[in-house]
Sequence to fold (474 residues):
Amino acid sequence: MKTAELRQAFLDFFKKQGHAIVPSSSLVPADDPTLLFTNAGMNQFKDVFLGREDRDYTRATTSQKCVRAGGKHNDLENVGYTARHHTFFEMLGNFSFGDYFKREAINFAWTFLTGKENLGLPEEKLWVTVYASDDEAFDIWNQEIGVPAERIIRIGDNKGAPYASDNFWQMGDTGPCGPCTEIFYDHGPDVAGGPPGSPEEDGDRYIEIWNVVFMQYNRQADGEMLPLPKPSVDTGMGLERITAVLQGVHSNYEIDLMQALLKAASDILGGVPTTEASLRVVADHIRSCAFLIADGVMPSNEGRGFVLRRIIRRAARHGNKLGATKPFFYRLTNALVELMGDAYPQLVSSQKQIEKILLQEEEQFAKTLDNGLRLLEQDLAQLKGTEIPGETIFTLYDTYGFPVDLTNDIARERGLTLDYEGYEKAMERQREMARGASKFGIDYNAAGMKFEGKTEFTGYEHIDGHEKIRTVVV
Ligand code: ATP
Ligand code: MG
Ligand code: MG
Ligand code: MG
Fold:
């Protein structure tokens, strides 16, 4: 089954069960300052869950565009390293607004995955987790569905646990949340990794495909959990992950859609093997960048635009690593539009704009990329130990426009770490200077800082909880 067919099969299945098919909402959340980008199917229904908004249906199904780069669910640094994470992906979901609850939600999921007339997956390959104290969900899985107790794992809030799972889903620091039950697919002993809840679970053998959340609370800023007006259901299944299962491949990057993008990227970059990790980064990033621009995000030095800029620069750096000597990323837009334009016509109408913006960004960054990399190489040649000094990170950011996560990406490839504290100190020094400068009207350069006319201070911003100085590379 092709990716596009699977998307349709999911929506059709839930339509048959009385769900309204609702279009994906924008990647830029409407009127929700608590959220950087749309990160789950439930976002557009947040007010319905909270009882603030009524719709003319109580069951809905969607294929939702999601971006997880920055914010609470941030997968940017996983991309290229795991088989299952993208910055942009589609989340298939079914929702109940005070209609059905645990029993039906679990039954729907199981029927879609294993039903002979549906996906027909072998039951013994599926593992499930439930929230540690949720006996009701455990019993439904075990006694009604018939999943053996050894393949049902109880997982709690992950407070200090040595594994990554956390069976209490929340959209952000505030908002609708609740205990969940997750379904995993075992890709077999050829792939490294342990079952959910084990210390090895971060491998890619047992891959989480579907998360079924029993929405019961509205989390307040002070942590208090108020009950929702009606218990509801929110589910999310990664389209690319379930497609991988159906296509008999283990990695999301091996499905038809991603292979076509990898092939297009390889052609543009002069035949780089499609198995290169950097090529995966490039093929992944074109989707988030193009879809974000189509939804109106522009590269900038703050907020959403800065995240977009960081993703573009990361793609440019990986292209450079693969030998690109001139802008290449924007040229991938065409392949993406051909692959996904039918499902998302907005991509087609925005193609020219996407190409123009990406090209501009690539050209701008190309001016400093080589020099920044050279500086980094010089510093690394003299490096004692395995930590890149804060001054270097700061100069790369401030003078050469390397966002910190980009420097970290390079460091990780070489088994090095970053001196974040030193970086923050360097940042703080510049901040002091800027404050002094504005107070006494002193020219930055005259204050003895190494600006070299390349950056311009434009204020402060908050990204991922860190205050960062805003500069424009000119
Ligand atoms: P993981 O533990 O693998 O990071 P998650 O628990 O963070 O996934 P959820 O928030 O439960 O993911 O999202 C629902 C579903 O969306 C997941 O079960 C998975 O199929 C899919 N998904 C989540 N993050 C990504 C991603 N970065 N790329 C592709 N699919 C994803
Ligand atoms: Mg995750
Ligand atoms: Mg998970
Ligand atoms: Mg999950």
Summary: Residues 160-164, 440-474 have pLDDT under 50 and may be disordered. The radius of gyration is 23 Å. The pocket of magnesium ion (ligand 4) is lined by residues 182, 208, 211 (CB under 6 Å).
